[in-house]
Amino acid sequence: MRAILAHADYSGVPRVSRLDRALYACDELSGFVHAVALVRPGRVIAGLEPPSVRKKLKDKGFARTVNRDDVYRGASELGVDLDEHIAFVVSALTDVAPEIGLSRG
């Protein structure tokens, strides 16, 4: 329960454990990556590269409800490079692509 509370800045619960930081780092980014995949040809996540996600992060009109500061801060607090973190999230979502509507067939 602590990690859930800590992942929301407005709760006032600090992120102290690796789980707290991981949940925070993956929450906004996973939704954003999903949105990026939905606008790709075929609506597939397979093959999505970090530079493509970064490019969409710079487009303030795309998925504008996603807090970009949370995405950048999440990777920083977790202590990982943003591109590596994006690749990790893409890989994790690719593993469940059929279940979340991001694969062909």
Q: How would you describe the overall organization of this protein?
A:
This protein is mainly α. It has one domain (2-95). The protein has 5 helices and no strands. It has helices spanning 2-6, 18-38, 50-58, 68-78, 82-95. Helix 2 packs across helix 4 (68-78), helix 2 (18-38) packs across helix 5 and helix 3 (50-58) crosses helix 5 (82-95). The longest helix is centred in the N-terminal third of the chain and has 21 residues, at 18-38. The protein is globular.
Name the features.
105 residues; mainly alpha
CA radius of gyration: 14 Å
Structural class: mainly alpha
Give the overall shape: globular
Instruction: Indicate the low-confidence ranges by residue numbers.
Output: none
Number of strands: 0
What is the string of helix and strand elements? HHHHH
Helix content: 55-70%
Amino-to-carboxy terminus distance: 37 Å
- Could you tell me the strand content as a percent range? under 5%
> The biggest beta sheet, please?
none
Count of discrete alpha- or pi-helical segments spanning 4 or more residues: 5
What is the average of the pLDDT values?
94
The domain count comes to 1
